[in-house]
Design a protein that fits this description.
By secondary structure, the chain is an alpha/beta fold. The chain contains 22 helices and 19 strands. It is elongated and about 95 Å long. The chain binds adenosine monophosphate. Adenosine monophosphate binds next to helix 3.
Length: about 575
């Protein structure tokens, strides 16, 4: 598969209006996903659509953007122009949040309607006027019955996750709702699977639908390089902590870490830099000059982690990359194959590691279908794994030196000082102290004390996929906190006392995240972090300490309000 940059559609080439283009650019979306590239023109053109796509493919924007595109910003009608039916309250909130985000600049009005919450605000919101309603079928029917939801102005109906809705027994509700929408409406059906019941539903309610599927094409199979692949199931909140442990366990020479958006790349780069990694961002927002400099540092080996979007990494040709890390899963199986093609070149072993959110497991299955192989799901390394792995690396380094015949001269230069020490000290004790020094210098001493299990609980339930079960493997592995010794800050520093510690579940990553996010400073401005049982200490440049303390005093970390002050001792 070749990367033909010119043939890639862009949001601009899909003809979206300027307000949407600027919103997408602000969100850091660099290009449409395959389902978006295929669906947007069809839907803007007014045709019906039957789409096979699961969560993680960008399907929400695939129907939300065209709906917003054709929305008349001047319309003041009370009833919605678009109705999105979804199976669950969570999805209703998620989809309405997506509409809110994409439609903000246009001033689109939307309401989420779902059961399990009082109907009152939903009814009030509908009364104020609405452009898009995102609803679960039961509550939608209820509000239709109460005269609060009128569907006579609806132009587009979307049945999202239709297979789930059928599974949950919503078929009759859906039929009743469709029956009171205008006949000439546009109907869109998205489903992750296409059982015959979905086909029947589609043939009853869709008119000559365009069919779009992002099912993997078989042709890419031959191009799957020989790469050791592993997946970790982690919740979104635990992703950065899990990445820290995984990187530490793997100790990559040079890796590329993929994120979905430009903002995602910047945030993760800051976070990793804050944890002492040499990380650099690469995305479409950089000038050619900046890009060249980043690539130069990567080639020279001063950068160990390149954090990038798919677009920015296209055409990237770096020989010594050892690892590809999918911090965000790609949005199509083909993109996965592209990504992992960056390693495993020139006969060397490559490694591809993927962080998979529980709701994205279907994408993992699609990828496995494409590559005709299993991607083993492993538990996120535990802190014990990290310690053992680090010790093993120090041991291997020492043993390699002992076994290297060419290193004898080098060793001999130290013989005299050692012999002198051994006159008054025990050889074992000297060796121990030397080991400790080597280990602490190379591996950053003992890892952070955060003992949390970072594997998502849903991954533990599903033993059938995992090749090794989901309990700690007890082998090798990584850490949460500052995986390496952090770089020393230059210039005068101050210590901040933060009133939350291990007991509150706080990790160094949380503190870096809070400081970079709330106080707007870069990760590189954060020095040593120590998380104690009930408080934490963070070293920061003296001239920024007050600003950071002030910003943090207003924020919550792990759901708890932090008290922050300058530490005087
Ligand atoms: P969905 O499959 O609709 O649940 O979307 C999955 C995630 O991808 C959401 O977090 C979206 O914000 C994000 N997303 C959607 N389209 C794009 C895009 N073109 N580029 C980057 N991220 C996107």
């Amino acid at each position: 598969m070749s990367d033909n940059m010119n043939a890639e559609p862009t949001f601009t080439s899909l003809g979206l209006r300027p307000e949407l283009l600027s919103t997408l650019s602000a969100l850091g979306y660099e290009e449409p996903t395959p389902i978006q590239a295929a669906a947007i023109p069809v839907l803007v053109g007014g045709a019906d659509l039957l789409g096979q796509a699961a969560t993680g493919t960008g399907k929400t924007a695939a129907f939300a953007l065209p709906i917003l595109e054709v929305l008349d910003p001047q319309r003041r009608g009370n009833g919605p122009a678009a109705l999105i039916l979804v199976p669950t309250r969570e999805l209703a909130l998620q989809v309405s949040q997506a509409f809110h985000t994409y439609g903000r600049e246009m001033g689109a009005r939307l309401v989420a309607i779902y059961g399990g919450a009082p109907a009152r605000h939903q009814i009030d919101a509908l009364r104020r006027g609405v452009d898009v309603v995102v609803a679960t079928p039961g509550r939608a029917l209820d509000l239709i019955g109460r005269g609060a939801l009128r569907l006579d102005g609806v132009r587009t109906v979307v049945l999202d996750e239709a297979d789930e809705m059928l599974e949950m027994g919503f078929i009759e509700d859906i039929e009743s709702i469709l029956a009171i929408t205008p006949k000439e409406r546009q109907t869109v059906l998205f489903s992750a699977t296409m059982p015959s019941r979905i086909d029947k539903l589609a043939s009853r309610h869709l008119r000559n639908p365009e069919r779009i599927s992002i099912k993997a094409t078989e042709s890419a199979h031959d191009e799957v390089p020989r790469v050791r692949q592993t997946a970790y199931i982690v919740t979104r909140q635990n992703k950065s902590a899990a990445l820290g442990r995984i990187l530490d366990a793997e100790d990559p020479v040079a890796s590329i870490v993929f994120c979905r958006t430009r903002g995602g790349v910047d945030d993760l780069t800051d976070l990793l830099t804050g944890r002492g990694y040499q990380a650099e961002a690469l995305h479409g927002g950089l000038t050619q000059d900046q890009r060249d400099r980043v690539m130069g540092r990567l080639r020279a080996g001063t950068t160990e982690l390149l954090v990038a979007t798919d677009v920015a990494a296209r055409g990237l040709d770096v020989d010594h990359l050892s690892h590809v890390v999918n911090y965000d899963l790609p949005m199509s199986p083909e993109a996965y194959v592209h990504r992992i093609g960056r390693v495993g070149r020139a006969g060397r072993e490559g490694v591809a590691l993927s962080l998979v959110e529980p709701r994205e497991r279907r994408m993992l299955t699609s990828i496995e279908k494409l590559i005709h192989g299993r991607i083993p799901v492993e538990p996120v390394p535990t802190i014990t794994d990290v310690r053992q792995m680090r010790l093993r690396r120090s041991r291997e380094a020492i043993e390699a030196l002992l076994d290297d015949p060419e290193a004898q001269d080098r060793l001999d230069t130290y013989r005299e000082v050692l012999d002198d020490m051994l006159m008054s000290r025990d050889a074992n004790e000297v060796a121990l102290a030397a080991f400790a020094l080597v280990h602490e210098e190379a591996q950053g001493g003992s890892p952070d004390e955060d003992e949390r299990d970072l594997t998502a609980s849903s991954a533990v339930d599903d033993q059938s996929r995992s090749t090794r079960g989901a309990k700690a493997s007890g082998g090798s592995r990584g850490s949460d906190g500052p995986p390496r010794k952090r770089d020393k800050l230059e210039g005068p520093t101050s210590k901040l006392f933060i009133s939350l510690g291990r007991k509150a579940g706080v990790t160094p990553g949380d503190l870096v995240g809070a400081i970079t996010g709330e106080a707007g400073v870069k990760g590189r401005d954060i020095g040593a972090i120590t998380v104690h049982e009930s408080f934490s200490l963070v070293e920061v440049p003296e001239d920024k300490a007050r600003k950071i303390a002030k910003a943090l005093n207003h924020c919550t970390i792990r759901g708890r309000k932090a008290g922050v002050r300058l530490d005087r001792d």
